[in-house]
Amino acid sequence: MENTPEHRSGYVAIIGKPNAGKSTLMNRMLGNKVSITTHKPQTTRHQILGIHSEEDLQIIFLDTPGVIDPSYELQKAMMKTVDRARRDADIILLIVDVTDYNVPGRIFKMFSSMKNKEIFLIINKIDKTSDQQCQAVAKEIQGKFDFDDTLFVSALNGEGLQQLMDTIKENITSGPPFYPKDMLSEQPVRFFVAEMIREQLFLLYHQEIPYSSTIDIVQYDERDDLDYISADIIVNRESQKGILIGKGGKAIKKLGKSAREVIQAFVDKKVYLDLHVKVREKWRENPSHVRHYGY
Ligand SMILES: Nc1nc2c(ncn2[C@@H]2O[C@H](COP(=O)(O)OP(=O)(O)OP(=O)(O)O)[C@@H](O)[C@H]2O)c(=O)[nH]1
Ligand SMILES: [Mg+2]
């Protein structure tokens, strides 16, 4: 009788400072954009699941918010998300931007209490500097923690990612598939739609606006000819409402247009996107508001 190979599965948490390239790395490993990415720190606020399946193997990546010292409730919720992911994980990837390589003590403290997990140091953005600099950075960080392995990658251009995938696969142990094999992530379409609007907001607005806003999808109607989506942009202060809307509604129109284009490509259908700005005074400081908006 033929021996079928044993099925293997495992959770891989992607952890690091804001802007290290965690979401870019996960998307690239999956070959699909699941997690939003921008040049601004603190883009990711949730745990974003990305599933890589093969016939006898399933790897579940957990993209997480960048590790910071939280100062308001939303950031505290984000750090709880990181903590949950690292507890759930079998393998942890510490992603370090080689050009901004100071690893917060908070991260090493997190690692010191963990047992039975493989922890890999991933030096990212190697396209931005010399091999020599990459080695020097790795050496310095290795001096602070005993990593199971160190790899050098560019999440942006794909260098080193095949080797990273192979290393992960070598360390995945026997287990069942946790998700259907054709599934790429777990959240519903409206979650991704909210994320895509937030991504455009991060790209188009400056200073505190992206950090003061969240998106609430209030209606999602799948009609024959188009998807009708009504979304509230929640801001933290009255004065931010005017900035979001802009002179004569110019700014919000621009946001609506670019978000609609991205959403249309995602749902592969025409979209009508209705955006409204609402003020929820200090929502990000308020635990029940933060929970209400899904954090
Ligand atoms: N040059 C270069 N840029 C990269 C690389 N990886 C990511 N970036 C850029 O770094 C920025 C941050 O990338 P993200 O993937 O959003 O970073 P993140 O770690 O998920 O950030 P947060 O969600 O804010 O914690 C983006 O502008 C990326 O294009 C890389 O390998 N090389
Ligand atoms: Mg991210």
Automatic annotation (TrEMBL):
One of its GO terms (cellular component) is plasma membrane. Residues 8-186 form the Era-type G domain. Gene3D superfamilies: 3.30.300.20, P-loop containing nucleotide triphosphate hydrolases. GTP binds at residues 16-23, 63-67, 124-127. The keyword GTP-binding applies. InterPro entries: G_ERA_dom, GTP-bd, GTPase_Era-like, KH_dom-like_a/b, KH_dom_type_2, KH_sf_prok-type, P-loop_NTPase, Small_GTP-bd. An essential GTPase that binds both GDP and GTP, with rapid nucleotide exchange. Plays a role in 16S rRNA processing and 30S ribosomal subunit biogenesis and possibly also in cell cycle regulation and energy metabolism. This is GTPase Era. It comes from Fodinibius halophilus.
